[in-house]
């Protein structure tokens, strides 16, 4: 859905997609991306595979219960004939940041391992990138893999700590907003009935995701984590409340592992400027997102 939001916007020049481990392994994620781009008629978008495991740990096999064993709800997409980029994700990010200096907007919708590796490769990277939008974290909301941690941050907290500490402008789109904007069965049925192959495929993929969320939400539906982050990055939707505050990551192995420690102490005085803060944190959206997403995905081929 996040890729769909990006491809549907004529004002966005998609220069690459990189993949990492998460709910599935990095190679499965890359293959899914190639196949989805082929289905959308966008073989021009390069795809680079990246990190295979978090820093200091082994990949735990992912979470097949969330999106199915293949990461796309168990459905099959037409095979993609083209290969991955010859360079890995971190190298690709650094190269593109230099080619598009001051204009590259990175939208990270998984563990932040690729970005951390890119920072290690090129310490000047924060000065080259226009903005980084991260789907991850929770400011005042509960976590979804622990009482305090969101999955993307928890999956590689050491990488996340490096990315949030880097001096680039950031937007954190966390569970505070993504769990409040949901797709339901009428949305899925609209996608299944669409003339385009891409929205129909997304509708089919959502069957497993809705089943995963049913015991959490009490009905068949899903949160809109990644597509909301992408829509904020592209400017398709507006945040009603997003203070710029200090954010740190708990990278320890204790009960706080993966927590985004967000300094919201300015809440009662209108969020005055904080010294050293460079991360906007989405707390409220201006309007419901689901109708916007539905119409966006229905425009896909």
TrEMBL record:
Coiled coil: none
Domain of life: Bacteria
Lineage, highest ranks first: Bacteria, Bacillati, Actinomycetota, Actinomycetes, Nakamurellales
Protein name: Nucleoside hydrolase
Keyword Metal-binding appears in the UniProt entry: no
SUPFAM superfamilies per the UniProt record, alphabetical: Nucleoside hydrolase (SSF53590)
GO CC annotations on file: cytosol
Inosine/uridine-preferring nucleoside hydrolase domain location: 1-285
Species of provenance: Nakamurella alba
The entry's keywords: Glycosidase, Hydrolase
PANTHER family for the chain: INOSINE-URIDINE PREFERRING NUCLEOSIDE HYDROLASE (PTHR12304), URIDINE NUCLEOSIDASE (PTHR12304:SF4)
GO biological process: purine nucleoside catabolic process
